[in-house]
Write a structure and sequence with these properties.
7-stranded parallel sheet; globular; 266 residues; Rossmann fold
């Protein structure tokens, strides 16, 4: 009988952004299930507190929750400092934020482009700069960014996400090369359509644009996914946990797609 894989995460401290719902929440709980203490941030304190309480009650880990807008560089750095002060270390960092609005290119505004840069790219820079010195001191660390499979296969209505999130790939590759000898790996996970409120809103918009039902759009989407369904947040979280684990120590600078085979490239 094959035993359960040991992740080496028990007692580690993981920072998880955007962890009040969806994929971020699933990641926080999955890391907690491995015995990692979790520092959670998002904009809604009340929802974050509920996730923190669940992680503590289910897995016996410590959980710290703080309302943070990840587009605010000073707030991100303050959150990481508070986490290090509370736990004495930072081992894992999951920069994550909600996606920018879906709309045709000519309908986008400069304000939306600026917000997308702050929320979906600069926030990852802020987290990385804040956590890397802690990881260097202990000669161990894991950074796992969250983007979308559209960094490999752009979606027509997601021009903001297609463009801004592609920059994460350059950041991940750059940091992987620079910090590998410090025992730090840097990788990216790109989910495809996943059972979240974000995916539902995108499908609702597609349905409105075409004048058809949500059920028809979802059925067509699932027929186009090789496994025949959307991923679950827990399946995305499992990929993140593996990249955060001891077992993935030789994997860095990579993008792992959790998209049910939707990306058709090599």
């Amino acid at each position: 009988m094959i035993g359960r894989m040991e992740t080496g995460l028990k007692g580690k401290v993981a920072v998880v952004a955007g962890s009040s719902q969806g994929i971020g929440r699933a990641i926080a709980l999955a890391l907690g299930a491995e015995g990692a203490h979790v520092a959670l941030c998002a904009r809604r304190q009340d929802v974050l507190d509920a996730v923190a309480a669940e992680a503590h009650s289910r897995f016996g880990v410590q959980a710290f929750a703080k309302s943070v807008d990840v587009a605010d560089d000073a707030a991100v750095r303050g959150f990481v400092t508070a986490t290090a002060g509370r736990f004495g270390r930072v081992d894992v960092c999951i920069p994550n934020a909600g996606g920018p609005p879906a709309k045709p290119f000519l309908q986008t505004t400069m304000e939306e482009w600026e917000r997308a840069w702050l929320l979906n790219l600069r926030s990852a820079v802020s987290f990385a700069q804040a956590v890397l010195p802690h990881m260097q001191r202990q000669h161990w660390g894991r950074i796992v960014t969250l983007t979308s499979y559209t960094v490999k296969q752009p979606a027509p209505e997601l021009v903001l996400s297609n463009t801004i999130r592609a920059g994460i790939l350059g950041l991940v590759r750059s940091l992987a090369g620079q910090f590998g000898r410090d025992g730090i790996t840097v990788n990216n996970v790109g989910p495809g359509f996943t059972e979240t409120d974000r995916s539902r809103s995108l499908l609702e918009q597609r349905a409105r644009n075409r004048g058809v039902s949500l059920e028809e759009v979802q059925r067509e989407l699932e027929q186009d996914i090789p496994i025949g369904r959307m991923a679950t947040p827990e399946e995305v979280a499992a990929a993140v946990v593996w990249l955060a684990s001891e077992s993935s120590a030789s994997v860095t600078g990579q993008t792992i797609l959790v998209d049910g085979g939707s990306y058709r490239g090599l």
